[in-house]
Amino acid sequence: MLQQLTISNFATIETLDLEFDQGFSVITGETGAGKSIMLDALTLLMGARSETRLIRHGKESCNISAVFTTHQDSPASKWLTAQGIYNDGTCIVRRVLHRERSGKCFINDQPVTVASLGDLGQHLIDIHGQQDHQALLKLPAQRTAIDRRAGHEPILIKMRETFHELATVRQSLQQMASSQQAVADRIELLLFQVGELDEFAPLEQQFNELEQDHKRLANAAELGEGMQQVADLLAGDSDNSCNHAITSAIGILNRIQRYDDQLRPHTVQLQNSSDLLHEIANEMRRHSESSSADPESFAKIESRLNRWIDLSRKHRIKEADLPDLHQKLAEELDSLQQAHTAPESLQLRLSELEQNYIELAKQVMHNRIEASQSLCEAVSEQMQLLGMTGGRLEVEIYELPEGRYSENGIEHLEFMVTTNPGMPAGSLRKTASGGELSRISLAIEVAAEGASLKPTMMFDEVDAGVGGEIAEIVGDRLRSIGNNAQVISVTHLPQVAAQGHNHFRVKKITDLEANTVHTNVQHLNDEQRRAEIARMLGGRDITNTTMAHAQELLSKAI
């Protein structure tokens, strides 16, 4: 389970150190307070793509770490052992992002790749975002839910690999079926073109770099002189420099602000501006000193740039597309050479792959039919627990025509649902309302895992679109799930918040004087929790009535 989460300089969080317990924990706060930031941080920690905009404004890096407890026989512990990573029952995952250089990832202080974070994360935590229930309307997400229930990832991978190889062989044979002389002529041309490009070896993004370096070296003198002029204008010794004017203004404000306290923030802002001007000026001077002409480097860059332009014109493409063209021509040459020299072996391979694919796909379809039956039973049971009396899930599965086989299998698969007793099942995409979809999504999220629930499950407003009695039912179900797994949920509903075993409140604090914003998260005690639920019930004006209602909700959850 997630034991501790530590965040620094991430989004609006300056520093945050939280400890979590087993059971159902709720996260609440006013709209815009940043309730989802912790989930965003954990998503990043579990291998999501990073962006420098996530680093707190004014900081050069951010740090996110989480401590998980892992049992000896758990999938996470087995993964750690397989990777040769020290494991004593405590797993510490850490990720550092930098603005100007590559970030770093660690598992138990051992450097790892971002992909490794994702692999481990699959065994530690399941994060269900705000848009995931909408994704469930799409057929690929429905197929994924059934595959999770089936637990047949190895055969899925093998089927997809076989399909892709099958498509490649088919393409090669189709090319072979054309005129043999035309193929031979094409191979001869490709041999020359690929050889020419192999010798030149264009790299991705290199053309832009060459252009920038060429422009910089060609104008080195003007660059150096211009940057020195900028530095002098910003913070030079001259009375005409910007900094001289700001310094004078600061002096005047320092003299008169004793008459008006409202002037003090402006003095601070001007001082910050002065510091910034000095910093920019110093950077300009350093850059100016390093900008010197280098005739030898300039000649090499100009020669390679001209050759790049010539080759691009020769192939009638944009300069930036030359590396892609190189790769495509090389792949085409390899494919044509195989098809041209081994048509009989390719035909045999095609037959073998077709047979292998059908066998694998039929096994996958069989697994999906079995998994869908147990999934429907489990989801339908969850739907009753979530207040959808008489509701049930069905899965429509039938084999597609051969021409529509794909890497995902040979069958059409779609969720069908009824939310009222006695009504026929209809497509989930057309039948469920927003509130119903949220509850069905929760039911599928729990049921798809079968008996292998992740140690920690996180939900971001899984209760969206519901309220009143239904919200209370959803909260009660989340609390029940929390008896067997750690559940953490962001919610805006007091009925759900009251069901939590633990309660965290998120608050956004704005410091106008320092011109900063930061997010604070507090673990609430019983009295604070009652006040927070009262706020959720009645807004900013907390009355005896809302406090009594809050206490009633809390008492019902015990």
Topology record:
Layout: E1 2-10, E2 13-19, E3 24-29, H1 37-45, E4 61-69, H2 75-82, E5 90-98, E6 104-107, E7 110-112, H3 114-124, E8 125-128, H4 132-135, H5 139-150, H6 153-177, H7 180-200, H8 206-218, H9 220-235, H10 242-256, H11 264-290, H12 295-315, H13 322-341, H14 343-385, E9 392-399, E10 411-418, E11 426-427, H15 428-431, H16 434-448, E12 456-460, H17 468-481, E13 486-490, H18 494-497, E14 502-511, E15 516-523, H19 526-538, H20 544-557
Parallel strand pairs: 3-13, 3-14, 8-12, 12-13
Antiparallel strand pairs: 1-2, 1-4, 4-5, 5-6, 6-7, 9-10, 10-11, 14-15
Helix pairs in contact: 2-3, 5-14, 5-16, 6-13, 6-14, 7-13, 8-12, 9-11, 10-11, 14-16, 19-20
Structure description:
Helices cover 55% and strands 17% of the residues. With 558 residues, the protein is an alpha/beta fold. The protein folds into two domains: 1-130 and 461-558, Rossmann fold; 178-341, no CATH class. The strands form three sheets. A six-stranded antiparallel sheet has the order 2-1-4-5-6-7, with helices on one face. Strand 6 and strand 7 form a beta hairpin. It is flat.
Largest sheet: 6 strands, antiparallel
Percent range for helical residues? Answer: 55-70%
- Gap between N and C termini: 23 Å
Rg is: 31 Å
What is the CATH topology descriptor of the largest domain?
A: Rossmann fold
CATH superfamily of the largest domain, by name, is P-loop containing nucleotide triphosphate hydrolases
**Number of strand elements:** 15
Strand order of the largest sheet: 2-1-4-5-6-7
- Average per-residue pLDDT, rounded, comes to 85
Question: What structural class do you assign from the helix and strand content?
Answer: alpha/beta
Supply the number of helical segments.
20
* Low-confidence spans: none
Count of spatially separate domains: 2
